[in-house]
What does this fold into?
Amino acid sequence: MPVADESENPTRVGGNDETAVPLLAPVDGVPPVLDTAAAVADAAARLAAGSGPLAVDAERASGFRYSNRAYLIQLRRHGAGTFLIDPIPVTDALAPLAEAINELEWVLHSADQDLPGLTELGLRPARLFDTELGGRLAGFERVGLAAMVEKLLGRELRKGHGAADWSTRPLPAEWLNYAALDVELLLELREEVAASLDKQGKTDWAAQEFEHVRTLEPAAPKADRWRRTSGIHALRKTRQLAIVRELWTARDQLARHRDVAPARVLPDSAIIAAAQADPRSIGQLRALPVFGGPRQRRYSREWLAAVDRARALPDSELPALTQPYDGPPPVNRWERRDPAAAARLSRARAAMSELSEQHAVPVENLLTPDLLRRLCWDGLPEFRSGAVPQDPAQAIDDYLKAGGARPWQRELAVPSLAAALFD
It folds into this structure.
């Protein structure tokens, strides 16, 4: 199995002595935004006639919109050039594009961020190369797109609009320039990352990770998402938690209907303030911070109705003060609740940290922290009985495999974990 060498490990290599050359605009200029069926069909034909992998990026409106939809798609392929597509007016006309690009290898940076929105549009790659994930596996300390482009290609990408509201129409010229630059060097970056992975013997590791990301199904919504309301830790009464739950649910329904980010409908701080004040009238509600503002006043009846519903609940239907755990409790409680499990986790973490150093791979990429915690808490029956499995390595391997660990991860982790947990 590959072991990192100081001469090959990017985390041990100094940066370029030469100053990176700023990349201020695409070489061929900023292409027009395509927003008609005919224009998309023409782009599909030109992309199909190109060669090699396809650079892909998408801009969303996180923090502004409720949905995770793509509001701009950027594509680039050798022999075809760069294309900017506005998917909103052509959502029902993307079939030619899907036919042209879905069988290609896509190159994305942080693919897990963009694939869900693209999949909603019928766009899904047959193969994937993720330059950000590849950079992690190759041992780079900084894996942002700009940092990797500077280190590997000697060019400076000036960021600045990634967190913008990409649902804005028309899109400003400087935003489009930024968007086009995001795919300008992505294909070249792919080649450099691939070469680094190959030099370190990690090409197969990366291929397994890329395929995992490509085929990953959307996660099921977490239960009791309202408990993530910022500031909820300050509440000490179950009735207050019920108010939070009802207001959170009302806000979520309204945000979904309007396709607006929930925090822009009603901030968490206002929900917490209402839970603490328990207003009995619209006047009392509007006297609270935020609720008296012009954007909130028109929804006063909805907010007060939510508070009234919480107040009317019988005690038996009030939420518990603490959230029931789906899996192990917080680690800071292990020592008190199960000292043996706490000791197992400490030894397992030490073993994984050693592997991380040895192979120049972040420990969270070697094995997800949640899976490691679940293993150490009560993953094997022998942990409760005090016995040792007949084949500890096989028992651990079976557990990690069932938890979604890839073959390369199990190949590295199982021997070290078996020694840490049972020797």
User: Anything to note?
Assistant: The first strand starts at residue 21 and ends at 23. The first helix runs from residue 37 to 48. The beta strands are 21-23, 33-34, 51-59, 72-78, 81-85, 105-108, 127-130, 155-157. The CA atoms of residues 44 and 99 lie 8 Å apart.
